[in-house]
Write a structure and sequence with these properties.
about 240 residues; elongated; 2 domains; endonuclease; alpha+beta; N-terminal domain of MutM-like DNA repair proteins; zinc ion binding; Endonuclease; Helicase, Ruva Protein, domain 3; DNA repair
Length: about 240
């Protein structure tokens, strides 16, 4: 599943279409495409793993899920995985194997934009308050909670926890105050490192523990385990990461 940094890169690719008017719309997403025709794309907003295409009277919410993708100016053939196609006077957009929904513009006002880990509006104090209200939550679940860290995915989770020396099954309420602040700060720091490495096509080379077998610090074998309520893969070192 693409994480927040990858969604920002998608946004950058889509920005040339801002200000353009839809001439044709298609795809098998379960909503009426007709109202999109004649509407202008005014803005592209991202919230964690979600992208919002903001038009005159509505917005389209796109979530790439596990295997979603997008294309620009393609020569396409009939494709059952095509959820949405948008044609403009010059250029076209295609979204495949993803969740595409139409939402009212008012819905955008209900989103807590301060929870987006990569947004200029990111509010670490609010994240800290939310974490302190869930002391029994494992830190692996906390990092993957999109209401707290919107945009954080499994890669970021594993790498952040290794950076701060915390095992994924540690409880939020057991973390010392300093560690809790490190958790919050590094979730944002690593996300921007992720973005830069993704741009340079070196992201996988920079992974320290995600999908790895040996700890880069001590050389001991890493633990690979499904952790938390979501049973997502965690990679961690029992020696260099403490269980709180």
């Amino acid at each position: 599943m693409p994480e927040g940094p990858s969604i920002l890169l998608m946004k950058e690719d889509l920005l040339p279409f801002v200000g353009k008017t839809v001439t044709e719309a298609g795809g098998n997403a379960p909503f009426d495409k007709e109202p999109l025709i004649g509407q202008t794309l005014h803005e592209i907003r991202t919230f964690g793993k979600q992208t919002y295409l903001v038009f005159d009277k509505l917005a389209i919410r796109i979530h790439l899920l596990m295997f979603g993708s997008y294309g620009i100016d393609e020569q396409t053939k009939p494709d059952k995985s095509l959820r949405l196609s948008l044609f403009f006077k010059k250029g076209s957009l295609y979204f495949y194997t993803c969740s595409v929904k139409s939402v009212d513009l008012e819905f955008l006002h209900t989103i807590d934009w301060e929870a987006d880990i990569m947004s200029d509006l990111w509010n670490p104090k609010k994240a800290e308050t939310k974490l302190k209200s869930k002391p029994e939550m494992m830190v692996c679940d906390a990092l993957m909670n999109q209401d707290i860290f919107s945009g954080v995915g499994n890669i970021i989770k594993n790498e952040v926890l290794f950076r701060i020396g915390v095992q994924p099954e540690s409880l939020v309420g057991n973390l010392p105050a300093k560690k809790l602040k490190e958790l919050i700060a590094e979730s944002r720091n690593y996300s921007f490192d992720f973005l830069e490495w993704k741009r340079e096509f070196i992201l996988k080379k920079k992974w320290l523990v995600h999908t790895k077998t040996v700890c880069p610090k001590c050389g001991e074998k890493l633990v690979k385990k499904q952790t938390g309520l979501g049973k997502r893969r965690s990679f961690y070192c029992e020696k260099d990461q403490k269980l709180y």
